[in-house]
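Progress against Task 2.4 (sequence-to-structure conversion) is shown through the following example record, which the project officer requested during the mid-term review.
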Amino acid sequence: MEKGERWGFVVYGKNADRVAAIKAGERFDFAGGQCLAQDVELIYEGPGDLEWSRAAGYLKEPVVST
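Structure tokens generated for the chain above:
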């Protein structure tokens, strides 16, 4: 992975274990290797809505609904 690269995924099963390991500051399996929790940052945790899209970088400007 590149510095600043963002990954998004739905949390369930094995992914839930990864998120728990990140929160606990432990190592976790990802992309065929071991990663350190200190090397990642959880930038959003919640439903896949507009806030998720902003956190993922898909939306740059605030969305104004009419």
